[in-house]
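Supplementary notes for students who missed Thursday's class. We covered one full example, reproduced here. Read the sequence, then the structure, then the short commentary at the end.
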Amino acid sequence: MPHFVYILASKRNGTLYVGVTNDLVRRVHEHRTDAVDGFTKKYGVHTLVHFEQTETPDATIAREKQLKNWKREWKIELIEESNLEWRDLWDEIIK
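Structure (token representation):
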């Protein structure tokens, strides 16, 4: 079963959120609709700007911890390596 590490943003160069899930569509939908109280609802962080698939829960958690410890500028560089325009990747994951 695949697992995912993802980054949401409030806007280009805005507030960032790093999360993990085993169901990317469901989890991003929850963020986008403010279904759960928390950080992303409070700060309006709804745009999926980066995601990575991993094969095991341990690998996913390790990558999440790594990204959460990164400097903000490194996260921005990671996003812009594959998503220079900071487009919302939602349409790509729901196909």
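Commentary. The mean pLDDT is 97. The helical segments are 24-32, 39-43, 57-69, 72-82, 90-93. If anything here is unclear, bring it to office hours.
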